Amino acid sequence: GHPSDYIGVNLSQEDGVFNFTQRALIDSILKDVGLENSRKSKPVPAKSSQILQAFPDSPPFNGPFNIRSVVGKLNYLAQTTRPDIMQAVHAIAKFVSNPRKEHGEAVMYLCMYLNKTRDIGLKFKPDPSKGFEDYCDADFIGQYDREYSAVDPSTAKSRSGWIVFYAGCPIIWASKLQTQVALSTTEAEYISLSMSLRDVIPIMSLISEIKSKGFNVPCTEPHVYCKLFEDNSGALELARLPKMRPRTKHLCASLHHFREHVRLGLIKIFPVSTDLQTADILTKPTPQNVFVPHRVKMCGS
Questions:
Q1: Residue 169 to residue 125: CA distance in whole angstroms
Q2: Is the pTM of this model over 0.85?
Q3: Is the sign of the CA dihedral 151, 75, 72, 59 positive or negative?
Q4: How many whole angstroms separate alpha carbon 160 and alpha carbon 182?
Q5: Are 182 and 191 within 8 A, CB to CB?
Q6: Which residues contact 217 (CB under 8 A, 6 or more apart)?
Q7: Choosing a second label site near 123 at 20 to 30 A (CA), which of 22, 211, 240, 254?
Q8: pLDDT 10s digits, 134-153
């Protein structure tokens, strides 16, 4: 049968471009929240002026939809064809065990964004001249709030976001709270860099083995290597020059796992301006003028 019968994704091809969309799933989500016939829309998936917290003093969510079911569908959508909503979904999912009024409003806001962009998905136009490209970023304790820190200590943790392209096509993306508390912007960015490369390095090894077996893979370089784009100069310095520094000697040794790949030239690290840091929208809510160009880079539209 057709692949879409098994994975729930609508596949189409036109002029060498592969399109992946999930219009049926988005319609199902909108029906669940009562927006199937609504024209309400939002330009971004989350308010850039509000950071979701536990809100323990707010009334419990008692909306007309099952918030766990809706967030579960949103999570599947975000991980399959909509990396642009990954950060917003993950921020909401953190509170579904005890949702409050504000969390229900955040779900509705996200669904209004989907109502406007239900035909957006992934566009794959493979570029044989490109190999791996990894954009990683971090939002240093962007969720911290003194009022709620006693109720939710995780507000002191930074958020990592990364997206990996191969042959110009997005293949991996993530938005996650870091498992440890970073003490500086440099540390938060370096943790994000390390976390993203844990996804990339195994796939690099797989592609390298496939090439060694004589299969033709879209990469013109003599080695399978990764271009890593980072917008923090401190993290760049740590990754390129492996030496002990007084302010970073406390970093866990597990974060340095990729340094041998850097030394061998299999991973090359480049600075990138914040305006071109595609992973920026995977770390925090952003305004429309920042969000849309990065979405176009990710999804092609």
A1: 7
A2: yes
A3: positive
A4: 11
A5: yes
A6: 207, 210, 211
A7: 211
A8: 898 999 988 888 888 778 88
